[in-house]
Write a structure and sequence with these properties.
124 residues; mainly alpha; Histone, subunit A; two-stranded parallel ribbon; 2 strands; 6% strand; chromosome; nucleosome core
Length: 124
C-alpha cells in the first residue's frame, strides 16, 4: 500500500478512457435501412440520398402532433400512461385512419364519424 487511501490513482495516472456516447437527436434512430424498408413496402425502387433527412423531419413533425394530442386525451382521462386507444381517438379526430389490429374494431359511435370524413390511410 502506498498510503494514499481511497483517493484513486492520483492526478498524473489515468486509466483508459471509455468510449463515450455521442449525444444526438432521437429521430436519427430512424436509420437509412428503416426508411428504405418502409419505401420498399410502397414499391419505391430508388431513393435519393437527400431524402432521408427530409423524411426524418416530416416524421418528427407528424409524431409530435400525434403525441401532443394523445397526451391531451390521457390528461383528460386523468391517467399518466398513454394507451393505444388514446392514439386511436387522436387519429380519428385528425381524420387519419391507421390500419392496425388494435383499431380494426371501431366502436359504433365512431363508425359514422369515419364514414363522414375521407381518411388518410397509414399502414403500419
Amino acid at each position: 500500500m502506498s498510503g494514499r487511501g481511497k483517493g484513486g490513482k492520483g492526478l498524473r495516472k489515468q486509466g483508459a478512457k471509455c468510449h463515450r456516447n455521442v449525444l444526438r437527436d432521437s429521430i436519427h434512430g430512424i436509420t437509412k435501412p428503416t426508411i428504405c424498408n418502409l419505401a420498399r413496402r410502397r414499391q419505391v425502387k430508388r431513393i435519393s440520398g437527400l431524402i432521408y433527412e427530409e423524411i426524418r423531419g416530416v416524421l418528427k413533425v407528424f409524431l409530435v402532433n400525434v403525441i401532443q394530442d394523445a397526451v391531451t386525451y390521457t390528461e383528460h382521462a386523468k391517467r399518466k400512461t398513454i394507451t393505444t386507444m388514446d392514439v386511436g381517438y387522436q387519429s380519428i379526430n385528425q381524420s387519419i385512419f391507421i390500419l392496425y389490429s388494435a383499431f380494426h374494431s371501431v366502436p359504433p359511435s365512431q363508425s359514422a364519424l369515419q364514414d363522414a370524413v375521407t381518411p388518410k390511410s397509414i399502414i403500419l
